[in-house]
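Appendix C reproduces, verbatim, an entry submitted by the partner laboratory led by Prof. M.T., so that reviewers can inspect both the input and the predicted structure.
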Amino acid sequence: MSFSGPAITLFFSLLSFDQPQWAARWRGDEVRVSEKGEWIKHTVVSRENLRDIAVRYGVDADHLRKWNKLSSSKLRRGRKLKVRAHRIAPPKEKIEVTVREGETWGAVAANWGVDTKDLHAWNYRVDELEPGTELTVWFDPARYWTVGRRLGPLPNHAMVRDDALSIGRPQKGRIENAVALPATSDYTCRSARLCWGSSYAVQGLQRAFANFRYETGYKGEIIIGSMSRQYGRRFPPHKSHQSGRDVDIRLPLLPFVPDWREPAAEEVDWMATWALIEALIDTGRVQTIFLESDLQRNLYEAARMMGRSHEELGPLITYPRDQPKKEAYVRHSKGHDGHIHVRFKCGPDEPKCRA
């Protein structure tokens, strides 16, 4: 699997034969942005919740609750809500889609950019899919689409010394001649004193980000929380991050979502997250990526929307659990819900590094 190839770019190209069906009906170019906000009426459709609606219109869920004097996040279908929208978008459309030969629930959901659970709920009377089956879909013609619509700038990352070595294990180790993660527009390092690592890891991280930005054209900010201290060793409250091979990357957020809090699943740009994870894996330098299991369904669904098949995802992510995932890259680790924790391999010239 090579990320330098055209898979993501061509898949999302409007000239591509295999573009997802939702891309062909996408009307995001009709979306208007209002800095001060404009009052609109929103009619709640099936399976929508308060945060879904807030994200769609670029507002805070607490404000939406206050404007409509809501005591609960649960909403009755058909209810009218007042929204001071910063993102004025076309309404969702209830459409009927026809199941094609060989399509599964997951394939239909991916084709129309919806959640598989929602698709099941909208069509609870359908037990088994057969070619020609008609399914109801609440399609969002203005869904956020931040990756794969165009290429980004050509990769241009700084040269990094080769003599920074990882010594020992991630939970008990240090760095010899550590290198600082270079400043670049590809990412934002939250604190320069916490962004040191081995040459092998820093070079891999730079390459992944540069390829990700180029292949997807993604323009949003992505924040690196921490890597290691300059000399490695203990780094409270982390149990690892001691040998310059671990890095915490905050989950990319959808536009208009405040970046000062731990995001809800609805606020994360899962397609951008998947594209970044795939870029990391394609460097050949990553050992493991940690993300809480409760969020891996969102990641899996985003990967399917971007053209990855169930079979291709088998060795990459531990969701769903219907086949052996012993060596999967994306694994569960408690506490990794607002960020991914990426662990790089020991480099070929690091004899004292321990996996």
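The CA atoms of residues 94 and 138 lie 5 Å apart. Additional entries are available on request from the coordinating office.
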